[in-house]
């Protein structure tokens, strides 16, 4: 009834517009097609949301967002129409989606050095740092476990399973860790189990697939490594890449770890590989993004390159969006390009998401929906994107970010070239929210859940 | 005097002497010998002669008969007038009217040839005969009344019998006498039938009356009848009749006052005695003349004198066209603009269709002066004398003067070309992407200036050297410092440079002070394999000097084999990865590698170093140093090797010389025109060279074209320190300047020699702070991407993408 009270006086003096409500998600579809509804242009998102909730007859009001012509309604309908130059005479096609709660800053975990990589699995946050340490944090900002095995900066770290971790770094190795969880700070143990040799340069990113215990690595030596996390499965390490004897002697905690080599090295890129990922649906397919501007699709069973898509910029990060069959890649040209990797796709770039002001080096999917993702960039921000929020421009589909997450450490400061606040890694967990690691040595958590 | 019809009055008018009141005129005219002629003029005053035409002998007997003396006198007077006063008087005598006077007044000096003037004067108009008494009788001929004669009564001769009853002549066959005494015959009277017939067909103007004077039927024209009618009604006789004509002032008016003496008072004596006052004045003048104050005669002024006199007056005159040369008649020469002749609109009484109506008047008044199609509104005036003064007169004359003064005299053929179209067609910078636009990474760590940077062949690492004597290696993407080595406490690292070559080795060279250090950064940067390979390359030269010493002596530059010493570094440096050092006697400021990575040249431009050792070419594989004898004039600045040919480029302060290393001769000399060259960069294809100079100029040399630059670019406000071509095939080059900016330019070189290089400025990159007049000291390109790295005097290294 509140809606009617709000709209009734407005209708008398304000113009009205016809809207047609529809959605793509089946669970919140209207019981019967309402056709076009005449509503006041004074309405805002909240009133529209109430209206749809009444139509849906939900018990608990469900916050909804409204998309008109690929843009989220943030103002009143009237202002929206004026701003976009749409006539109030036309029937507006309004798509409603479940609302994305704005990510609210919740915590920062202090590190000793730049954080190169973050990952979250079952309430534990894994961070790899440039000081070569692997840390596992609990939700009360305590380090549960620390792992030290890398001889140089860690560049990537991922949970393979809640008990297994993979990490890689500038020491050209990938290490597999065994993790035994504990609640108290420092109680959990993090022990390296395997050293994987094979890359000739820094391993900048890894992708893991727990079920098949496969790891993909992206290295600066232009190659992609396919590794097994199982000691028995992996072949022997190549001798020439092992550290020399005198150097190994220097390591004080020189406990000889098993050293293994790659299942296969995928050669083909002309420059260093920025990022790799597995196909979310098919673990035998991998995608890689390289500084040589190309995205390659790999058949991992035969270790061959299936497809190459070349863009115009160096690519630093990649993320697979299986529902829309798109690959999101972060570029040096400060935007995210969505690439359709299927052979049937005619255009290379399906969509461009613009807004970042520096290289986009990390991408993560929204675990809840298949339309949203978060990106971390060297400009010191993370941005949340919705690929439904898109508009057509001259040559391209262009999208804009829904939310911008800034670094808590850089609040109110003017940052040039992302100095001191570059985000190196971002991860989106269902429970924890958006976790990002940055040059400011802070692991920042932004929760999408309403704070209770 | 009712019969004065035939009279002809001749008025001889002599213009009265003008009363000369002006002293100046007295100077000129009165003293010009005319002073004593005044009496003559007085005597020659106007006279009037009445000449009566006499008809009858009887009347001739009256006192009006002109005596021969009188006649002669009159004639004499005429002749005198002719001779003394010239043509004007003869004209007046002939015309004898106001007209003549006017003519004479208008043109006293212009010779007017009067019509028949001489003939009329010579042939007498009378014949002499004797009358009945034996006296001389003058019979006058008919006087031809000229058209302007006032003899209005000269009608055909009528009956002269006078006012007597006609019945007196009833018995005579004639009815009277005409003016010459001939009888006027009685008109024949027809029969009554005839007269009846006559009366039946009434001729025009028949009145039925008989003219008693002639006896003929009186015929009146319709005008005469009309006049009669009007007279009977006491109206004016006709249209043209003026009952009150203006009086003709024959004897009054200016100059005629004393034509008729109105009083008989004899002339007073004073009229004949020179006036004392005048005498006084004259004597004054005479005195002045004697003293030379007055020049009695003044010759008419020549043109020059008149001009000079005018110049002496206050106002200045300007002859705008004084220096103007006459132009030949040609279409390109425009005469001074002529005003169009006045039209109907300019008339004081224009036809009504030219008069503006109210609406036109209103629009004209509302219009701005500039917009009006004419400067005035046509106005109707009843008479010319009612036309008021033209209020725009001064303005109009001024504008006319401007027109005359400013109007072009020669038609110049002006090319109507859009200046935009003359600009070269430069592509839009947006089409020339990619090029660096923003600063993406800042690397901080150096204390003091960063003097040199270098990007390794893989494009992942940036090496830098600065004032703090350290060499640092950075990760290009994140800006993370990975490796650092302090080479010297007090001396700056002038140059850092990665050795070119494939990924199998990783050798960094740094010039610090007089030494050149060879380093293998011991880090994650290189695998053990690469590390070993690099050490091998550095160690290859050991022992070469000993084994090949004689060969070295004979080679060029053998004079100073000890000038450079190759040696292992200290153990601490060895531990940190610095393996080899080369010490020169001079401080090398630039270092450039040959593409194969075996040769490199250093330049020590310091004035202390001898010019012979300024440029050195080193062979890494032999640990050998040579000093080529180049005989340079001027301080060597920098060098570079040609990417494919055995050519060696040496830049001195003002010149760039190209040497052929194989033929050992100078190939070419470039004269860029810069005052002090700071850096040179060779295009990867080797056909174009960019020279940057401290005098703010960037000079593009096409080596195929000649010794002078193909293009000079002056965009910076301060000295340009460095310039670099993109090595990886992108058509980009960048320069670094002391104004704290980098300029990114597009420089496309086509292999085809027919087409010149296109140079488009793309972007100004701002960000570096200017510290003590120094801005950006070095610029380097990423080997593949359109990224560049700059070294700033503010201690930062910035990556631009």
Q: What is the compact description of this entry?
A:
Chain A has about 450 residues and is mainly beta. In chain A, about 10% of the residues lie in helices and about 45% in strands. The interface of A and B includes residues 169, 243, 292 and 313 of A.
How many helical stretches of chain A?
Answer: 4
Envelope shape of chain A: globular
Q: What's the count of strands of chain B? A: 37
Stretches of chain B where pLDDT is under 50 for at least 5 consecutive residues are: 1-68, 81-120, 549-561
Helix fraction of chain A by DSSP (H/I, runs of at least 4): under 10%
Cα radius of gyration of chain B in angstroms = 62 Å
Oligomer designation: heterodimer
Strand count, sense and barrel status of the largest sheet of chain B are: 5 strands, antiparallel
Q: If you compute it from the alpha carbons, what radius of gyration of chain A comes out, rounded to the nearest whole angstrom?
A: 24 Å
Order of strands in the sheet with most strands of chain B: 14-15-16-18-17
**Which bin fits the share of residues in helices of chain B?**
10-25%
Rounded average pLDDT of chain A: 82
What does this structure look like?
The complex is a heterodimer of chains A (452) and B (801). Chain A is mainly beta and 452 residues long. Chain A has four helices and 36 strands. In chain A, strands 24-25-26-27-32-31 form a six-stranded mixed beta sheet, with no helix packed on it. In chain A, a hairpin with a 4-residue loop joins β15 and β16. Chain A is globular, with a radius of gyration of 24 Å. Residues 1-12 of chain A have low confidence and may be disordered. Chain B is α+β, with helices and mostly antiparallel strands. In chain B, α4 crosses α5 (87-95) and α5 (87-95) packs antiparallel against α6. Chain B is rod-shaped and about 185 Å long. In chain B, 27% of the residues are buried. The interface between A and B is large, with 42 and 29 residues.
């Amino acid at each position: 009834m509140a809606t009617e009270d709000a709209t009734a006086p407005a209708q008398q003096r304000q113009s009205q517009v016809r809207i047609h409500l529809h959605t793509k998600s089946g669970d919140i579809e209207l019981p019967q097609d309402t056709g076009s509804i005449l509503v006041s242009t004074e309405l805002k998102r909240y009133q529209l949301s109430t209206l749809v909730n009444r139509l849906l007859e939900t018990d608990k009001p469900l916050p909804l967002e409204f998309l008109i012509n690929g843009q989220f309604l943030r103002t009143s309908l009237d202002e929206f129409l004026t701003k976009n130059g749409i006539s109030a005479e036309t029937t507006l096609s309004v798509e409603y989606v479940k609302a994305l709660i704005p990510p609210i800053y919740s915590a920062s975990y202090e590190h000793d050095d730049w954080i190169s990589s973050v990952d979250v699995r079952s309430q534990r946050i894994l961070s790899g740092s440039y000081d070569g340490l692997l840390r596992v944090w609990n939700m009360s900002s305590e380090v549960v476990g620390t792992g030290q095995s890398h001889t140089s900066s860690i560049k990537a770290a991922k949970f393979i399973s809640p008990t297994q971790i993979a990490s890689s770094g500038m020491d050209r190795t990938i290490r597999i860790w065994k993790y035994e969880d504990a609640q108290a700070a420092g109680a959990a143990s993090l022990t390296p189990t395997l050293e994987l040799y094979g890359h000739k340069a820094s391993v900048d990113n890894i992708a893991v697939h727990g079920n098949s215990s496969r790891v993909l690595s992206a290295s600066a030596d232009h190659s992609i490594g396919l590794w097994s996390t199982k000691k028995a499965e992996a072949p022997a390490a190549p001798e020439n890449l092992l550290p020399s004897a005198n150097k190994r002697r220097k390591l004080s905690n020189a406990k000889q770890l098993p050293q293994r080599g790659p299942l296969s090295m995928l050669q083909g890129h002309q420059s260093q590989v920025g990022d790799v990922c597995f196909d979310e649906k098919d673990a035998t397919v991998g995608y890689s993004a390289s500084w040589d501007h190309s995205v390659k699709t790999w058949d991992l069973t035969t270790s061959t390159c299936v497809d190459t898509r070349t863009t115009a910029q160096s690519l630093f990060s990649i993320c697979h969006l299986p529902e829309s069959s798109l690959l999101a890649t972060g570029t040096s040209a400060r935007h995210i390009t969505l690439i359709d990797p299927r052979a049937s796709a005619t255009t290379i770039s399906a969509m461009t998401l613009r807004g970042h002001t520096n290289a986009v080096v990390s991408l993560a999917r929204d675990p809840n929906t298949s339309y949203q993702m978060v990106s971390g960039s060297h400009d010191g921000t993370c941005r949340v994107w919705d690929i439904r929020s898109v508009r057509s421009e001259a040559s391209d589909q262009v999208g804009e970010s829904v939310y911008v997450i800034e670094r808590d450490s850089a609040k109110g400061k003017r940052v040039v070239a992302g100095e001191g606040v570059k985000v190196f890694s971002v991860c989106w967990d269902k429970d924890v929210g958006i976790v990002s690691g940055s040059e400011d040595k802070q692991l920042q958590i932004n929760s999408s859940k309403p704070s209770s | 005097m009712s019969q004065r019809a035939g009279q002809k009055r001749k008025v001889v008018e002599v213009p009265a002497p003008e009363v000369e009141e002006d002293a100046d005129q007295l100077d000129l005219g009165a003293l010009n010998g005319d002073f004593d002629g005044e009496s003559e003029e007085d005597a020659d005053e106007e006279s009037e002669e009445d000449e009566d035409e006499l008809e009858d002998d009887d009347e001739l007997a009256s006192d009006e008969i002109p005596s021969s003396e009188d006649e002669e006198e009159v004639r004499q007077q005429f002749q005198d007038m002719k001779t003394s006063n010239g043509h004007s008087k003869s004209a007046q005598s002939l015309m004898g009217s106001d007209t003549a006077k006017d003519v004479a007044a208008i043109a006293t000096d212009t010779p007017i040839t009067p019509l028949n003037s001489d003939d009329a004067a010579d042939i007498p108009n009378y014949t002499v005969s004797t009358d009945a008494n034996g006296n001389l009788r003058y019979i006058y001929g008919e006087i031809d009344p000229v058209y302007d004669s006032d003899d209005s009564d000269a009608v055909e001769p009528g009956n002269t019998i006078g006012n007597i009853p006609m019945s007196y002549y009833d018995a005579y066959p004639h009815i009277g006498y005409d003016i010459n005494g001939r009888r006027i015959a009685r008109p024949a009277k027809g029969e009554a039938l005839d007269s009846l017939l006559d009366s039946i067909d009434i001729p025009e103007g028949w009145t039925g009356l008989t003219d008693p004077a002639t006896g003929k039927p009186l015929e009146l024209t319709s005008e005469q009848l009309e006049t009669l009618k009007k007279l009977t009604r006491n109206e004016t006789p006709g249209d043209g009749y003026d009952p009150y004509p203006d009086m003709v002032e024959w004897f009054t008016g200016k100059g005629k006052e004393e034509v008729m003496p109105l009083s008989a008072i004899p002339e007073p004596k004073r009229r004949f005695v020179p006036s004392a006052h005048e005498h006084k004045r004259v004597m004054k003048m005479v005195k002045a003349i004697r003293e030379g104050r007055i020049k009695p005669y003044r010759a008419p002024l020549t043109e020059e004198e008149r001009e000079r006199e005018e110049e002496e007056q206050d106002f200045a005159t300007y002859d705008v066209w004084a220096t103007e040369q006459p132009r030949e008649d040609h279409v390109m020469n425009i005469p001074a603009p002529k005003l169009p002749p006045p039209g109907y609109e300019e008339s004081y009484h224009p036809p009504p269709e030219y008069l503006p109506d109210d609406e036109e008047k209103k629009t004209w008044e509302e219009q701005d002066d500039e917009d009006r199609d004419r400067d005035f509104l046509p106005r109707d005036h009843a008479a010319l004398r009612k036309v008021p003064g033209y209020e725009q007169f001064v303005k109009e004359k001024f504008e006319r003067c401007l027109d005359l003064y400013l109007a072009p005299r020669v038609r110049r053929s002006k090319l109507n070309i859009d200046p935009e179209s003359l600009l070269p067609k430069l592509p839009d910078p947006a089409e020339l992407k990619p090029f660096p636009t923003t600063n993406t990474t800042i690397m901080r760590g150096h204390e003091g200036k960063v003097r040199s940077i270098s990007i390794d062949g893989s494009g992942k690492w940036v090496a830098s050297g600065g004032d703090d004597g350290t060499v640092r290696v950075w990760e290009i993407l994140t800006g993370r410092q990975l490796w650092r080595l302090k080479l010297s406490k007090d001396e700056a690292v002038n140059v850092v440079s990665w050795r070119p070559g494939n990924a199998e080795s990783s050798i960094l060279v740094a010039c610090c002070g007089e030494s050149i250090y060879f380093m293998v950064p011991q880090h994650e940067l290189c695998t053990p394999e690469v590390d070993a390979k690099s050490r091998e390359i550095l160690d290859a030269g050991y022992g070469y000097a000993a084994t090949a010493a004689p060969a070295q002596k004979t080679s060029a530059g053998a004079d100073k084999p000890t000038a450079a010493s190759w040696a292992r570094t200290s153990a601490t440096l060895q531990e940190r990865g610095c393996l080899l050092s080369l010490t020169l006697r001079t401080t090398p400021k630039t270092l450039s590698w040959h593409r194969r990575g075996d040769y490199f040249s250093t330049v020590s431009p310091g004035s202390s170093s001898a010019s012979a050792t300024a440029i050195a070419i080193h062979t890494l594989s032999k640990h050998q140093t040579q000093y080529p004898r180049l005989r340079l004039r001027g301080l060597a600045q920098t060098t570079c090797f040609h990417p494919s040919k055995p050519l060696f480029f040496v830049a001195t302060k003002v010149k760039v010389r190209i040497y052929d290393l194989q033929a050992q001769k100078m190939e070419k000399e470039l004269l860029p025109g810069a005052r002090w060259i700071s850096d040179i960069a060779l295009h990867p294809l080797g056909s174009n060279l960019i020279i940057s100079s401290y005098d703010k100029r960037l000079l593009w040399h096409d080596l195929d074209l000649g010794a002078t630059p193909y293009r000079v670019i002056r965009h910076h406000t301060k000295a340009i320190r460095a310039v670099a071509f993109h090595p990886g095939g992108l058509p980009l080059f960048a320069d670094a300047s002391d104004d704290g900016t980098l300029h990114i330019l597009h420089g496309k070189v086509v292999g085809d020699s027919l087409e010149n290089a296109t140079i488009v400025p793309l972007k100004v990159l701002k960000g570096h702070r200017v510290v003590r007049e120094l801005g950006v000291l070095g610029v380097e390109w990423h080997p593949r991407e359109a990224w560049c790295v700059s070294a700033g005097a503010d201690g930062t290294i910035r990556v631009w993408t």
